[in-house]
């Protein structure tokens, strides 16, 4: 893969996460009962950053959990023979809570659907909202994000890569392309 474009640098990522935190606060009105659940992998540090900002702005820290949707994926049979399960870590009841699912990229909507299925198996939240750093379009399911850092129209041939300091050592969003020509006459 080679980088076609840097669409967000560290400052733009920070501004987007801050804006999302303000939008979550505005939507929640009262941060009591608010919890953030990050979808493994990069949704987890984003959820923690949002919790830090909400605490800074409101003086109340939302509970934060992590969600592994591996076993809820609709393409599980197409994955490796032994998919790597990272584990779900939600140490609070979600019943009657205002849950914000947090992920890095919304593409087809299948991850969001799997995350909601997993959450619903844990109880009935009062509300489930969805926050993403990047919405790249091409949704295959009727799912939309409630809080979006950046809408980024892209082609199916492109790969949107989110890098976060906690995992990758830097914050950025890039569009990448595979420089290898595709056989079969496609350009």
Quick structural gist:
The chain is an alpha/beta fold and 187 residues long.
Architecture overview:
This protein has about 190 residues and is an alpha/beta fold. It has one domain: Rossmann fold (3-Layer(aba) Sandwich), CATH 3.40.50.2020. About 25% of the residues lie in helices and about 30% in strands. The protein is built from four helices and eight strands, in the order βαβαββαβββαβ. The protein has a five-stranded parallel sheet with strand order 3-2-4-5-6, sandwiched between helices. It has a three-stranded antiparallel sheet with strand order 1-8-7. Strand 4 (about 100-105), helix 3 (about 110-120) and strand 5 form a beta-alpha-beta unit. Helix 1 (about 10-30) packs across helix 2. Residues about 185 have low confidence and may be disordered.
Topology, element by element:
Layout: E1 2-8, H1 10-28, E2 34-39, H2 43-58, E3 63-67, E4 98-106, H3 110-120, E5 127-135, E6 147-151, E7 158-163, H4 165-168, E8 172-177
Parallel strand pairs: 2-3, 2-4, 4-5, 5-6
Antiparallel strand pairs: 1-8, 7-8
Helix pairs in contact: 1-2
Q: What characteristics describe this protein?
A:
187 residues; five-stranded parallel sheet; alpha/beta; 8 strands; three-stranded antiparallel sheet; Rossmann fold; single chain; 4 helices
Radius of gyration, taken over Cα atoms and rounded to an integer in Å: 17 Å
Structural class: alpha/beta
The tally of beta strands, per DSSP, is 8
First-residue to last-residue Cα separation:
16 Å
Strand order of the largest sheet: 3-2-4-5-6
Gross CATH architecture: 3-Layer(aba) Sandwich
Q: Mean pLDDT, rounded to whole units?
A: 89
Largest sheet: 5 strands, parallel
What's the number of structural domains?
1
**If you consult CATH, what is the topology?**
Rossmann fold
Q: Compute the number of helices.
A: 4
| Helix/strand order, N-terminal first | EHEHEEHEEEHE
**Range of helix content:** 25-40%
User: Approximately how much beta-strand content do the residues carry?
Assistant: 25-35%
CATH class: Alpha Beta
The unreliable regions are 183-187
General form: globular
